[in-house]
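Per-record layout

source: Entomoneis paludosa
name: Clathrin/coatomer adaptor adaptin-like N-terminal domain-containing protein
length: 133
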Amino acid sequence: MAMKLRDLIRKVRQCKTAAEERAVIAKESAMIRTAIREEQVHFRHRNVAKLLFMHMLGYPTHFGQLECMKLTASPHFPEKRIGYLGMLLLLSEEAEVLMLATNALKSDLVSDNKFVAGLALCAIGNLATADMS
């Protein structure tokens, strides 16, 4: 089983050298890729949160873009929030995966939950392109 985000942060901060840090990130990145391949949905939000941490450290995390899209379609707010955060950080306006987000954004904009609608509005403000209209 993969480690929790808190454990990953501790492990990275305990690294004495950059090579040691790269090894920790590479190992966890491989575990996340395996979890994505095996469709482990109960760990999806945790894995995206770890990918966001790795992205902030400057490591490549492009393989998690589709996982963010899947989380935005989740009915659970905490998972949806992580998905939108991942979408904002990991995707650019040129990303092809962004076209998949259009339906999730439309449904979340008309949501009765004002927090869900707020997530969608924030995402549109940062990522909207002319093609999305």
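summary: The chain has one domain: 5-132. The mean pLDDT is 89.
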